[in-house]
Amino acid sequence: MALLKVTFDQKKRVKLAQGLWLMNWLSVLAGIIIFGLGLFLKIELRKRSDVMDNSESHFVPNSLIGMGVLSCVFNSLAGKICYDALDPAKYAKWKPWLKPYLAVCVLFNVALFLVALCCFLLRGSLESTLAHGLKNGMKFYRDTDTPGRCFMKRTIDMLQIEFKCCGNNGFRDWFEIQWISNRYLDFSSKEVKDRIKSNVDGRYLVDGVPFSCCNPNSPRPCIQYQLTNNSAHYSYDHQTEELNLWVRGCRAALLSYYSNLMNTVGAVTLLVWLLEVTITIGLRYLHTALEGMSDPEDPECESEGWLLEKSVPETWKAFLESVKKLGKGNQVEAEGGDAGQAPQAG
Fold first, then answer.
1. Can you tell me the distance from the alpha carbon of 95 to that of 345, in angstroms, rounded to the nearest whole number?
2. What does the alpha-carbon distance between residue 187 and residue 261 come to, in Å, rounded to a whole number?
3. C-beta neighbour count of 176 within 10 angstroms
4. The model's pTM
5. Which residues are 303's β-sheet partners?
6. What is the 3-state secondary structure (H, E, C) of 269-284?
7. Mean pLDDT across the chain, nearest whole number?
8. H-type helices in the chain, by residue range?
9. Distance of CA 28 to the CA centre of its chain
10. For residue 311, what are the CA distances in angstroms to 106, 204, 308, 317?
11. Long-range pairs for 119-124 at CB < 8 Å and ≥24 separation?
């Protein structure tokens, strides 16, 4: 028994074909939007690639770009099919290809849904890659004379200013690394010598942060050095006073930005997926309604369209049997090939 059977007359078939034609061209526009979102996301990730530990995060924008291109191609073709569907002469050339085309559309819809799902699941991957990338970037902050790293100071400073953040998890991360280049240290100074000697790795560590951590909204002039030394500043207690630095770490700031962006892209992709599924279902009804016409030469005759020729369990059973037959056929061919290559006795 056919699943979700619907009776069509000529008027309904014409309306269905015209509606699908319009929806396909709307879906072409949606494909362009998906392509644009993927491109925008890729550019945004590339902007901060210096503070990201790997390139795995580019899988989602690359997939969106690919899905956008495929959406434009498939829906342009489907629009042409719907346009030709009500002309028997033109429809005849599409008839042998329509069923395989519908199968490809189903696979495309599955892939598009998985890409939309990946948009929501990218947060975990981004969190780890930002944690390692920012940590490494902060280590190279002082290497302004090293080829390949001379831009890192500017990158980190602009990042902290733009996202109003400081350090990886917070401003105290800067206390654990030497972010001032040896080029700007006076090694004849007793203070510098004592600080370097007091550190096992011979690094110059200070309880200070770069200028880009300063919060300009604070009424007090920025305190960026000797942050834990209360006696170094007038009327100051670092444990109770609200510091005039950005409190939030850059990992949390970037993660929040990219998560909101990915959630928006994922929601748009899901809406496009719903449109694609609706078009695929409509094409299936149009295909079966045209195939079911008792007299193709009489356009006014009634016909029946359906989603599946059999019920869901029967369709699934038939699919599994066809897969088994295909597997057995390949096994027989392999055995036949091995027998043909067997050596003959002299």
1. 54
2. 47
3. 14
4. 0.79
5. 8
6. HHHHHHHHHHHHHHHH
7. 82
8. 10-47, 59-84, 88-139, 152-163, 190-197, 250-291, 312-340
9. 20
10. 18, 74, 7, 10
11. 119/60, 119/64, 119/262, 119/263, 119/265, 119/266, 119/269, 120/262, 120/263, 120/266, 122/57, 122/60, 122/258, 122/262, 123/255, 123/258, 123/259, 123/262
**Confidence label for 127 from pLDDT (cuts 50, 70 and 90):** confident
For residue 284, give both structure tokens.
Answer: 């299936």
Check residue 48 and give its pLDDT: 86
Query: Whole-angstrom Cα distance, residue 261 to residue 141?
Result: 28
Measuring CA to CA, which residue among 233, 184, 187 is closest to residue 207? 233
Task: Name the strand (E) or helix (H) holding 148.
Answer: none
Closest by alpha carbon to 236, among 223, 217, 218, 252? 223
pLDDT tens sequence across 142-201:
887 777 778 889 999 999 999 999 999 999 999 999 998 888 888 888 888 888 888 767
pLDDT of residue 110: 95
Question: Which tokens hold the place of 241?
Answer: 């006073």
With 70 as the cut, is the pLDDT of residue 240 above it? no
Sign of CA dihedral 88, 89, 90, 91: positive
Q: pLDDT tens, 289-338?
A: 777 666 666 666 666 766 666 665 665 565 566 666 666 655 655 555 55
Q: Could you please report the per-residue DSSP string of 76-141? A: HHHHHHHHHTT-HHHHHHHHHHHHHHHHHHHHHHHHHHHHHHHHHHHHHHHHHHHHHHHHHHHHTT
Residue 140, CA distances (Å) to 64, 126, 196 in order:
33, 21, 18
Rounded-to-integer distance, Cα 278 and Cα 20, Å: 9
Give the phi and the psi of residue 181 in degrees, each rounded to 5.
-65, 145
Are 61 and 45 in contact, with CB atoms under 8 Å apart? yes
Contact between 36 and 3 under an 8 Å Cβ cutoff? The reply is: no
263-278 pLDDT, tens per residue?
Answer: 999 999 999 999 999 9
pLDDT score of 183:
87
